[in-house]
Design brief:
The chain is α/β, with parallel strands linked by helices and 366 residues long. It is 46% helix and 17% strand. The chain binds fructose -6-phosphate (F6R). Homodimer.
């Protein structure tokens, strides 16, 4: 049921505060200062002895894997590789019995991800699933796992599945960081407390909806769009571009902001909207100078900024604010306006938001 929402996608975007809360319920124990996840606890030695973690997934779930790469490496100091399941399965990958493979899938039915899991198992790896659909094929095929508990996702464009996947992966990274001693006690507690504030901050980010609608109206006729971000927010730029492509059919590309000068900057002119994730934490000054480069070539700038920001506001055509948080958790907030922007553009263009052409909710063929 869509309740009072026009589309499942919008409903699911608005469900994110409660979905994220459901994801960490019973797991995140702030007062006790611990994270409980049976699938990790029962296999802790496998995780702690892993020389590396290989993440396999497709589409939006692959983007969640990329965010996780930054989080795992930063917090738990475990090398991470993120692979498209469809490439991994066909390229004779080097997998050892001391590797941990994490498969991420909302539906738990994606054929390529399933094949990658079977291959990793044959090679002796321990395979951990992060699925949303309980009892799905992937959740049964993996050795252990953690559900996202986001509730049913009906809209073909993945929204709450993405933010809850990141939440689960953050919990795992923090848990391993604590067990490995790669995070200080005070930093660990600070992360737990901050994670607990995220649903409320997502709620605040959603309050920009009317403003985002105006931005959407301004750029709905664009033929192309660029999305830029750095660090933890580089994968969010990829995800923002995918959301726009799949539901509005506008061509969009995501890039790490610093890669601009190696080619894509040639595309910039007064017709080109560029969405730049420029939150105050993480390479802020460098992103501001990337914005200056776009502006001097007449590009139109939509900045996703931390509330109260003034530097980007002075340069950008529009800014959309999100609440402040620690850098590792910014993707959970910066994703929200990008989802809403794509949604409104697609609706204004009269597209079938919940069932875009050529796409299916679960891709059970390769
Ligand atoms: C994008 C989208 C797809 C899926 C991909 C993987 O919005 O929905 O890119 O993310 O098909 O699906 P799952 O996560 O079910 O394996």
């Amino acid at each position: 049921e869509k309740n009072n929402f026009d589309h499942f996608m919008l409903k699911e975007i608005y469900e994110q505060p409660s979905a994220i809360t459901d994801t960490y319920r019973g797991r995140l124990q702030v007062d006790a200062g611990l994270i409980r996840m049976a699938g990790v606890d029962d296999n802790l030695e496998r995780f702690l002895n892993a020389k590396r973690i290989v993440i396999v997934a497709c589409g939006t779930s692959w983007h969640a894997g990329l965010v996780a790469e930054y989080i795992f490496e930063d917090l738990a100091r475990i090398p991470v590789e993120v692979e498209y399941a469809s490439e991994f399965r066909y390229r004779n990958p080097i997998i050892n019995s001391d590797d941990v493979v994490i498969a991420i899938s909302q539906s738990g039915e994606t054929a390529d991800t399933m094949a990658a899991i079977k291959l990793a198992k044959e090679k002796g790896a321990f395979v951990f699933g992060v699925c949303n659909v309980v009892g799905s094929s992937i959740s049964r095929e993996t050795h252990a796992g953690a559900y996202t508990h986001a509730g049913p996702e009906i809209g073909v464009a993945s929204t709450k599945a993405f933010t809850t996947q990141i939440t689960v992966l953050t919990l795992i990274a923090l848990k391993l960081a604590k067990a490995k001693g790669t995070i200080s006690n005070s930093d660990f507690h600070m992360h737990l407390r901050e994670l607990e504030t995220i649903p409320g901050k997502v709620e605040l980010a959603l309050e920009s909806n009317d403003h985002i609608k105006k931005v959407a109206d301004k750029y709905k006729d664009a033929r192309n769009c660029l999305y830029l971000g750095r660090g933890f927010n580089f994968p969010v730029a990829l995800e923002g571009a995918l959301k726009l492509k799949e539901i509005s059919y506008i061509h969009a590309e995501g890039y790490p902001a610093a890669e601009m000068k190696h080619g894509p900057i040639a595309l910039i002119d007064e017709e080109m909207p560029v969405v730049v994730i420029a939150t105050r934490k993480g390479h802020y000054e460098k992103v501001v100078s990337n914005i200056q480069e776009i502006k001097s070539r007449q590009g139109k700038i939509i900045g996703i900024v931390t509330e109260g920001d003034t530097s980007v506001r002075d340069l950008a055509d529009y800014v959309i604010e999100v609440p402040d948080t620690i850098e590792a958790l910014t993707p959970l907030l910066t994703t929200i306006p990008l989802q809403l922007l794509s949604y409104h553009i697609a609706v204004m263009l009269g597209k079938n938001v919940d069932q875009p052409r050529n796409l299916a909710k679960s891709v059970t063929v390769e």
